[in-house]
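Feature request disguised as a bug report, sorry. It would help if multi-protein outputs had a clear separator. Right now it looks like this:
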Amino acid sequence: MRYRTMPKNGDQLSILGFGCMRLPATPEGAIDEERAIAQIRRAIDAGVNYVDTAWPYHAGASEPLLGKALRDGYRQRVKVATKLPSWLIKSREDMDRFLDAQLARLETDHIDYYLVHALDGPLWDVVAGHGVTGFLDAARADGRIGNAGFSFHGLLPDFKRIVDAYPWVFCQIQYNYLDQAFQAGSEGLRHAADRGLGVVIMEPLRGGLLARPTPPPAVAALWETAPVPRAPVAWALRWVWNHPEVTLLLSGMNEESHIDQNLAVAEEALPGSLTEEETALVDRAARTYKELMRVGCTGCGYCMPCPMGVQIPKCFDAFNALHMSGDAETAKFHYAISVGGELGVSEPGFASRCVACGECLEKCPQHIAIPDILKDVAAQMEDAAMEQRLATAKRIFTVRPQ
């Protein structure tokens, strides 16, 4: 295993972190505890020393499972990361209640890396107004958390102002070779690193899309021209690790073969180890994937705010995922979560709310026919099962401490 240094505290962290959002499941949908615990311990035994979870993962079952997995001496071998569910915070007191409940669930007296979860600009303004910075200061002072950070799912200008608003130790962003200009993107990565923050990467494989053994034929043809043959997952992971600003990436390794494969790739993942020819090839693969997308949205957010509240970039992101991944149900559930109002302070922002006022057309630098495409999004994403998906999302993301 290779390790990189967290800039502000000197921690040596494995470049591969274990993400506990997609643990193996039983046929009934519960976590397969025996197998999940064995997988987590197998990764730790191989040198992984950073494990990430969150309050809502697996409908609240991920943190307790991780607590069990870290018994028998494993807790002392890792840094644990979990997250304050920011969308559920209604007061300063809520923050302490959630943190104390998480300590109990994880069977520990401290969280090494504690994140304010899933921030965008409006949600940051809310939790800041409730005193989250004072909470983080107090929790660090009394030892309940070691290092404060945040995860982000918004627009680049908001990311920059959040980075600059508090002396964070680290942040967590979505980043992969398709998302170089999405959300925080490459510019946000550099902005955070320039200010001394460690950067943890989520979705390095774009929800598994970039790891599929059989990619679209046009992409597969590109990989066949590579001077050094590699599996699609190796190209995706190595591209992220090629950036020296990246501290580590998280992988949801819910198959034993995933663990072995990710560990093998990590052994070769030095910063700057891809040649110019190889990085150019990855960029060509990214362009090819984007040609397969239904809408060329970069997520810049210039179209926002929509007067009707439509979450335009999030609608288009889910719509592209639907057509690129081939996994319709996962894409539609992602749509329900991201625009259904459960993960923020705004009202639901479904594509069907568009009234074709045309205001967004004047703002879009990509000259996308936004209202026309939103009609397609609504037709394909908002089917008869949407209410059930929303109910499931509400059940998962509104669990509160007892």
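(second protein starts here, but nothing in the output says so)
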Amino acid sequence: MAGTKQATIEPADCVRVSRYSERMWSPVNEGQIVAAIEAGDLVESHHLEIKRDAPASKAERSEIARDLASMALEGGSFLFGVEELKDAQAFRLAPMELPGRVEALEQIAELRIDPPLNIRVREIPSTVDASKGYLHVLVEASPQAPHMVDGVYYGRGERRRRRLGDAEVLRLHKHRAEDGERVRMMLEDDIAADPVPVNDRRLGHLFVVALPVAASPTLTESWVWDQTALLEVFRSSSRGLPREVAEWAPQPSSAHQLVARSHGQAWTSLESSLSYEAGAVDVEFCEDGSVHVFVGRLTDQPGRGRNAEQHMIMDGIAVAYVMRTMNWALSVAERSGYTGSWHLAVAGTGLEGVVAFSNTQSILMYDGTAYPAAVYKSSTQATRIEMQEKPGMVAGRLLNRFVRSLKLGAHYGSLLGWDR
């Protein structure tokens, strides 16, 4: 983040990358299924399995649990309600009864697979009878894969599931651990490159990193140098942000200048002659798809309330910018056509002995519990579905220890999924 220079923005064509689209065909109506059948494009593959009916019996539910678990290793989808005509090597519509099917599949993914698997199920009604139709089940590559059913781990063969041997399971777990180290190293590099000179630091600082798990090193190369495209991505930060954290300052709008970096570009307040530590925001978007966030006000003397002169942790800023970083990652993924999972990491510095702002604003709720360490660090992995549909729970995986240490459960427990 240090050593930047003002960039001259050159217009560029924003080409949508679709290298992942073939595994994530996602019909939204019956007509699209019919068109795929008639064109001969509906073919079972490593990433698409077609089934006549959704499971009903206990044995069938165990069977589909194994299938779902096998798809979680690399991602893919299932289409229910289409029958395979093996002799003709073709498919035909076989709409099934829809009531209760979505809930049944979600329950299978949650209760019969270990660890539980996040899936997205879409109902596609038949044009003839809306009570019948099809189900499209999206299984994104899981950061917790491989998944187990009845004590057995599963992966995918060319078109069907297969059992994973012990050696392969150990290799996958080792690879996942090593892969997660990448984002932690990025976080350490960002902390080491803190843009506020050491002698000028008066406040605690927040760092957040998002990194696509499996993407080309040039994932965003086609648009990250385009000012218009990058501004559109940057403005997505507050999408769905909970009201209780949305207004904590500084806001992303403080970062109003675009500067060139060695691996991408950043929206920043650090280039302004009027910049100051408490208002510092820097959001860098790199060609590899990673997003690097710096905020200079994780602690401050807020100057109001019954303890106005006390140095405090601005706890809402940590929650807000973790969730904003997920929004930026989702926007990067949408523009780039990336459908895989993300590494996420967060760090806070200058925390030791400092109390949380939210616990000092009411005599009745006053809690002077101070944070016990100088630095907080945490990392996790999340699928696109989790970040879209359960952002609070993903933020919770990153911030639970932070929130619990400061006894902030009354403020953020529900938001972070403690009641689920």
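Even a blank line would do. Unrelated, but nice: Confidence is low (pLDDT under 50) at residues 2-23.
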